[in-house]
Structures are given as structure tokens and as C-alpha cells.
């Protein structure tokens, strides 16, 4: 049985940043990564737009990953297990994993950082009607086949969902020689970044239809077409206005789900809204010594925020392993009035500043974000516009916290 | 022309018109939108990222080292479709100079075994 | 031209059961299947229930083979290492449903099935989440659940292991009666058989027609199903049916043998040319939700991971399992709908014995057992350590949801009946059957298939011909934007 101060599950952007954060505090670190290299999903995100906040320049996904990977691999204090899949972990922090080279790996961890990322919602999860031919993919699967393997899934494409991966893949498929006929979005707005709508769709004259969904698919062995229809406010399609679009490919960009399967049956308290753990400002879960960061905690839109969050988690995990993490009373952070969720969900009373990340439930223009504690205003921030697809943050002084914090928007 | 400002999540709908050599931007909520609108009208530019195929199989991801004129994207992609990388390259290496006469060099954004 | 004692047409659960039983005889036997794998028709998409046998009318073939087949399941599935659990079944009725329950009970007793009528308290003990309106139930403790495609595949593997041959992607295009048997022509080759068995399921009518044999009218009904994530397991313990109606046994809620939860099926009659389309409908899914709500309202549809449809084919009220009157040594299996899966092992034995009698075949002394397969999720730590040390591929997890290793996938690709498509791999080892539905592992399974079959990735298929998953290389055919 090996022992490390901090064991990090997942070697994507969150895991690598957490490792560097933990090393800053001098902890011994192990990363367990299931792929054969570090970097996670960034390795297949060959488009640019990463790192503007973190590095002050625009990088592609592989470049962003490489900057972290280079730091991680040259640090002797970080042991990296590749092709290592964690099978189980316990509340007293015993981690069991498997890899082809190391066999069954058993590690005793001073603390654990969960950094497993997220997965895409599938055709099954949205109960897509019709036949089951080849030609239906999650956007990320098509991205992997193209950008890593060099193969194109089809030539005539409809995309359901206007999440960022869907938008990015619309441009990718187009520039590989495919025709993207339509992007259909069931909501009246896109969860993708504005910039991606302009540069991935408008630049290539790809139509985007809001409040529209795919009602069924057709094709025996290969997809031959899809039916789309407008939906009402309750998301029910108006089948009398169904329209047939011949195509050989349907890409799904219909949501990301934190990959928390390892926590099934554990005592870690989960949020029904984020599908991730409930954490404090150190990104510590309800089980002491288990931390969570990145897309496994809540789905981010910018990797820069993932790195920042994971650094905090890594540093804190190192602190916990060395018995240096301060505890004390916590207050709850309670979102309402337009705020769908806020994170961390708990904050310790004390000194210093803490950043609260949050998402709104729909597009708001000209609203003020208000943070109060015991009915006293702790922070007020005017905003021009807030959209569900763009994570917001607001920084508050811990010394002003008296009791539970509420975070709301108001006209 | 009509476009959407991408300088912030506001996404102002911009209308840009040219009359007697004078550009006007309408619909912007702030000065950044004015600047963006003018640039998009007179010289829209994009950094292009794509793949190149290896001559013995495989793909390597690449980008232009600077933004190129938007109307040259098609030329660049056509060039990329025909180009084959015949040797190993490392991230950051220049694979081709002034590709498709866009003025931009093509940089590898990942390592490629060749 | 190759000569066989017996040729079986159709690689469903019935065809492979017959083939496996035939492999117990000293005979040259062949199975022809038009699809890319066995278990691609009704044997893939059904409820996976081993019925106790109270449902079929006493004295019918359905009743006979059901009861006989169900009794074979425990030993058969142990021998073939197929997931099977004797979970018991309930037919649940509201106030006023007691007479119908009693009628089923009496039929069960007449058929020799262990059944009892239970009331609310005992129902709740078995199914704590049952609808509060349910008052009575027929409880059949010996009903079970099985993985229908794994059973079909294991029967096929076991048959091949014992000398039988299977040819996939060989659709039969012509059959001629010869002096001492049959000339069977497929898209690829010609074969001669002394004895010919039509187990082609929904396609049996076409096979009969090739020979000039008539078929009674077939009725095809498509059913929609939901599959829930294994996280939802526990919401139901037994197979819970509503009272049957004229359309069939109704929409059930049940655990699956592999640890998921299954909901369905509906019953939508389709014409013969749509019998193999298997399209899920929105209306059908709505009916399933409605039906499930009446039995186990607590079922949470947010945990759905897949929806699919399957077709069952009936001819009149009973199975037709008989030799043709017109053509000697031509045997037909028609309308093997529910309880066809349950009956299949017994049907297999019976039909093989009929062929053996006619051809005077002798039995082999013994059959070779299927070799044991390593499954990470079922292995102990010591077994895992040994296995990975001897073959690192068993330490490389490809499907993270179902924890399937590369070693298991390689074993499937190189099994007696090799898996050569992504779906064939999935049915054998569950790679892609979990909550992400292959989002992560499908490209990796494709890479393994490409390497093992020595074909480019662009030729790797989901299932049938024309189902290539990533058919083009990037840049190919790039034109002007």
C-alpha cells in the first residue's frame, strides 16, 4: 500500500491544477488518470479560446493542457499513474484503482481531490424517438473521432443543442468538408458563448433555430433524416409543424453531467442542481478530506475557472493532509430570485475574501446582484447582462458574514 | 451589414453602414462595440484552427499564428485539405509559412509522431 | 458445395438453441443468419422475462414449452454463464381484479406452475414501491429475468465450440428441394442439407415462400421500452405485470438480469414490411410512462439511459412448431412470440431430437464446456492481480461506466462466434451499455476493432452493412465553403 498526502482522481485541467496547488504547499501528490496521457478532454479541443483569463493569451486546448502537463511531469513530487481507473474509494480515504502496468493499485491518501470531469447526455437520456441507426453521436464523440483519430462521422449534419461543444463541432465539421444544415435549440436561448455563435455559426452561414427540437430520427442502418418541430413554453413539440430534414448525422449537444459515479452510495452530500458535491470555499465536500473541483463539481464554461478552482482545492487538500486546514463555523449560501445555484454552498466565518460563483436561471439585462447576510447587504454589483451559459462570480469579505448568505438578483 | 457584438455576453445587435466613406455603427451599448463593429466591417479577421493529415496517416492539430482575413478562411482550409505533414513535429513548431498566401504561418498545437 | 446434415436458418434465441442442441449429436450442422450477429431481431429487443407459465392456455404448445423451458433455466444459465435471476413475478390488480387473478391462478395450477394469490401486506413486502391502489396479486416465485441476447450468444458460442458452424451476413435467397434434401443458396454461397429448419422469426414467411410452403397470417406488434440506469435498481424487485388484456401481458416494470430496470412494452401492430424497423414512438413512450405510473409510480424517469423498440411476431394463438406436411425434413418454427424466450431451450431440445430421429443421428459422449471468461466486475482482488499480471489488457478499462477491460473486449472479438461490430461487442461485454451509452468508450472500441480486424477505422460498423460509424477521413471531399 502506497501513501501520498494528496491523491487526485483525474488528470485533466482540474486534476493538473489541483496537483500544482498541492505541490505549492509541499505535499506529496499522486494523479490517477484513466487515459494514456494527461490533459483530459482538452486534448481533443483543438479550437482556440482557452487561457485568456489564466494566461492572458488565447491558446488551443492541447496547448493549454501542455502548459500544465509540462509543469506536472517535471515535478518529482507528483507521481502520475496513466491508464489508471479508480474502482472505489472509502471515507477513510483508501483508493483502489487498476492499470495495465501497475495492476491493482491501493493507495492511502491524506486527502483526495475528485477531478473526474463530466460526461455528455446521450440520445438515450433524452429518449430520442425513432430508429437506432449509425449516425447519432454526442458532439464530444464526433470531436474525438475527428480530432484524435482523423475520421469524419458524416457529411450532412443536424445538431441538436447549442451548447459550446455543439457550436464548436458545427465549425469543425464544416471545415472538414461536411454541411451543417441546422442547429436546433429547445430553449429560447443558447447555453453557448456568444462568441461561438458568431464565429462558429454565423461565419459559416449555419442556421440556428431556437425553441426547436428533434422529434424523431429515421434510417435503418445509417441515419437518413431527422424531424424537427417547434416547442411551446413547456417544451412540448408542435407535431403538426414537424419538418423533415434529410441528413446522415445527428450530433447531440444537450448537456453535461458531472461524472460522480464513484460517489454512488457514499456519504458525500450531493447537490440536485449541480449534480456535483456540496462544498465549502476550500472545495471540501461534506466528508472531511475529500475535495472536488472542476467539471465534476459543477459544469464550467471556461477552463480558466476550472484551473483556478482546482488550485484552491489542491492547496486546501494539502493543508488538510498536514492538519493545517482551518475549520470553524460555516454558513450556508442560499441562491434565489434568478440565481439557479451558487458555489461554494458553505463558507467558513473568518477573515479574507471569498469568491462566490453562480449561474442565473435565464437571460437578465440590467440587474443588480445582491449578497446579504442576516439581512445586511454584504456586496452589491450591477450587471449589464447575465445569461445561464456564462458563469458569474462575486467576491465578498468573509469578515462581513454574520449568518447564512443569500445571493439574489433584483431589478 | 448586421452582426452580433461578442465583446461581452450582452451580445448587442449591431448595424454597420458606410455612407460616403464614413462608417456608422448602430446598436452598440458601449464604445467596445463600436470598435468591434468597425473592425468586423472593414477587416474581419479570425485565427483559424484545423487539422493537417500526415502523409503516413494520423492527424496533427494546427493554428494560424495570427488572425487572417475572414474571406481567406476558405483558401486556407482548402490548402489544409491538400497539405500532408511528412515528418514528426512538436507543439509550437512552424509547419508551413505564409500558408495559402494568408500571411500567416501554420503552427502545430500538438505533438505529432510523423 | 458444402454438405450438412442440418441447416438452421435464423440466429435468434430459438435458432441458436436448436443449433446448440444439435451440436450434442454427431452431425454436421450449420446456422445461417442474414444479420451481422446472432440476436439482432426479437431476441435482442424483448423484456428478458423467464415466464413462470400460468399465462398460456392449458394444453397448448406455449404452455408445454414454457413450463419445460423455465425449468431448464437455472442449470442452463449456470452452464453458459448467462446472467439470470429467479426474482419471481407479480400480476398486480386493483380492487375488483380478484376474479381475473383467480382465473390466472387456476390456469397456473393446471399448467403445473407454482403460483399463489397474495394480498396487500405481502405485496408490499415484496414491492414496497407498489401503487397504493394495488390490492391483489398473482405471485409466481419461480419466474425470472435473463439477458436474452447474452443467452442467444452463449448458445451460439457453445454450439460453435462443439463443432457447429455459423455464417453471418448470409441471407438465404433461394431454397430448392432435391432428391434427398435441400439446396440452400445464400448471397455468398450454396449449401446442401438433409434436414432444414426455418427459425427465421419475423422473416420465416419469406423462407417458407422460397420453398413454396405457405405460412398462416403473421401479426407483428412493436413495443417500446425504457431502460433505466443501474442506480435506479431497487425501485422494483420482481417482475411486475398489470392484468393481461387482449393485446398481451401489458406494460411491466422489472429488474433486468444485468442490474438495470426495464419498463415496457407497448403493443403497436405494424404491417409485415415494417416488422424489422423497430422505431420508438413518442406516443408509445407516453403509454409506457402511463402504464408504469399505475404499477410503480415511484419509478424515476430521469434515470433513463436508453429507449428502444422490439417486434414480436405471432401466428394465431399458439406456436407453430412442426415438420412441413408438404416437405419432408423441413421443419418450421412460426410465431414464437412470448413466452418464446422462456420456451427456447426446450424447443431447441425438441427440434434437435426430431431432426436426430429423422436422420438417425447419434449423441456425442459429451459436450465441451464454454471456457470461463474473466469479468473485472465479478473478480476478486487476487484474481484481478493474477489476471493483469499475466495479461495487462485486463487492467486497461475501456468502458468506464460498466468497468469493461480491453482484455474482455479482445476475448469477445476472438470468441467462438467472433464479435466484429461495435454492437456485437456491446452485447457480449456491456461496453457502451452504461449511463454514458458509449459516449466515452465507443471511439476506443472502434480503435480496438480496427486494430484486431485489420481494417481502417472508417470501416468499423455499429451493426449491419452500411452502419459505418465514421465513414470518411477528415479533409476528404473538402470543397469550398
End-to-end separation of chain B: 44 Å
Low-confidence stretches of chain B: none
For the largest beta-sheet of chain B, the strand count, sense and barrel status come to: 5 strands, mixed
Give the amount of beta strand of chain B, in percent.
Answer: 25-35%
Most extensive interface between two protein chains, with residue counts = A-C, 52 and 63 residues
Q: Structural class, from secondary structure content of chain A? A: alpha/beta
Helix content of chain A: 10-25%
Q: How many strand segments of chain B?
A: 10
Q: Tell me the major beta sheet of chain A.
A: 7 strands, mixed
Q: Number of DSSP helices of chain B?
A: 2
Number of helices of chain A: 6
What is the residue-mean pLDDT of chain A, rounded to a whole number? 95
Outline type of chain B: elongated
At the first level of CATH, the class of the largest domain in chain B is: Alpha Beta
Widest β-sheet, arrangement of strands of chain B: 8-5-6-10-9
Radius of gyration of chain B: 18 Å
The percentage helix of chain B is 10-25%
List keywords for this structure.
heterotrimer; A: 411 residues; FAD/NAD(P)-binding domain; Immunoglobulin-like; 7-stranded mixed β-sheet; 5-stranded parallel β-sheet; 30 strands; 35% strand; C: 481 residues; D-Amino Acid Oxidase, Chain A, domain 2; Arc Repressor Mutant, subunit A; 8-stranded mixed β-sheet; 5-stranded antiparallel β-sheet; 12 helices
Can I get a quick summary?
Chain A has about 400 residues and is an alpha/beta fold. Chain A contains six helices and 30 strands.
Describe the structure.
The complex is a heterotrimer of chains A (411), B (114) and C (481). With 411 residues, chain A is an alpha/beta fold. In chain A, 18% of the residues lie in helices and 35% in strands. The model of chain A has no long low-confidence stretch (mean pLDDT 95). Chain B folds into two domains: 2-42, no CATH class; 49-108, Roll (CPE0013-like fold), CATH 3.10.530. The longest helix of chain B has 12 residues, at 31-42. Chain B is elongated. Chain C contains twelve helices and 23 strands. In chain C, the strands form five sheets. In chain C, strands 1, 2, 9, 10, 11, 12, 19 and 20 form an eight-stranded mixed sheet that branches. In chain C, strands 13, 15, 16, 17 and 18 form a five-stranded antiparallel sheet that branches. A four-stranded mixed sheet of chain C has the order 6-7-5-14. Chain C is globular. The model of chain C has no long low-confidence stretch (mean pLDDT 96). At the A-C interface, helix 3, strand 11 and strand 15 of A face strand 18, helix 9, helix 12 and strand 23 of C.
